[in-house]
Write a structure and sequence with these properties.
With about 270 residues, this protein is an alpha+beta fold. Helices cover about 15% and strands about 40% of the residues. It is built from 4 helices and 16 strands. The chain has an 8-stranded mixed sheet, covered by helices on one side. The chain has an 8-stranded mixed sheet with strand order 10-11-12-9-13-16-15-14, covered by helices on one side. It starts with about 25 loop residues before the first strand and ends in a 5-residue tail after the last strand.
């Protein structure tokens, strides 16, 4: 991640603040227990909540110091879907992008539908099964702040190998890619208009069998070790202990319902 990522994809002019197509602009979690999930993240990140569009059922937007950073919704009773954080990728035309997803071998599971006056959305998956959202902004532009403690910091696609799937994302969203120079050779950064916005990590046989290919959301933490310990105190668990990673010090954790995310103290993000 670089300083450019903080404003990556934001367009100049017209004062719209919309993200350029392909830029991750929002993250959302669908959980079984909405109240308990809000309590967990409120205690961990200092989030407060207010009701959001409820086209898919009860939904709340998380606020950090009064600014929207994420969404949490409630799964319909009986729906046995994976509990996972999902990034939403910006688009100027959700219907056209959904059609491109299908044309390139992906699947559209929900929508496109209009979410009140907020915008138009869809939930899709790439050819390997990794789930992501599409967001065509109207009144709701997405996360109002990133890379400060308690806010989204980064999104990474964790997959078996990058070569086959990166073509899908480049074709649908117009990304360019750049290899990450590290000991782990199968690691790419996706760029929009010259700015790094997300990454793709091929982990081979280390891919979790119970999850398959998936998008990982990173949340900024002032102190990763303290935050990981707090997750456990609040009923979650540590999946991978704090360590030095490519983006800074990080730890992979899960909330009480099993939604996995990564805590990170981004290099240079907050002094």
């Amino acid at each position: 991640m670089t300083e450019a990522q903080a404003s990556a994809g934001r367009r100049d002019g017209a004062g719209t603040g919309r993200s350029a197509p392909g830029t991750p602009c929002w993250v959302s979690l669908m959980a079984h227990g909405l109240a308990a999930t809000q309590e967990f993240y409120g205690a961990l990140f200092g989030w407060e909540f207010r009701p959001g569009p409820e086209q898919l059922g009860p939904y709340a937007r998380a606020l950090l110091d009064g600014r929207e950073v994420a969404g949490i919704g409630q799964l319909p009773p009986g729906r046995q879907l994976p509990i996972a954080w999902t990034p939403y990728l910006a688009t100027d035309d959700a219907d056209a992008t959904a059609e491109a997803v299908r044309h390139c071998g992906g699947t559209v599971g929900v929508g496109p539908i209009t979410a009140g006056q907020a915008g138009r959305m869809a939930i899709a998956s790439d050819p390997t099964g990794a789930v992501f959202g599409l967001w065509q902004a109207a009144r709701h532009l997405g996360s109002a702040v990133t890379r400060v403690p308690g806010a989204p910091a980064w999104n990474e696609l964790v997959t078996r190998e990058t070569a086959s799937v990166v073509t899908f994302y480049e074709t649908v969203f117009g990304y360019t890619d750049e290899a990450v120079v590290s000991a782990d050779y199968d690691h790419l950064t996706l760029h929009v208009e010259g700015h790094p916005v997300a990454s793709v990590h091929g982990v081979g046989d280390a891919l979790p069998r119970d999850r398959g290919p998936h998008w990982m959301t990173y949340f900024e933490a002032a102190d990763v070790d303290d935050a990981a310990a707090r997750v456990v105190e609040l009923g979650g668990q540590v999946v991978q202990p704090p360590r030095e990673g490519p983006h800074g010090r990080e730890a992979t954790v899960a909330d009480p319902e099993g939604a996995v995310f990564t805590l990170v103290r981004s290099t240079g993000a907050h002094g």
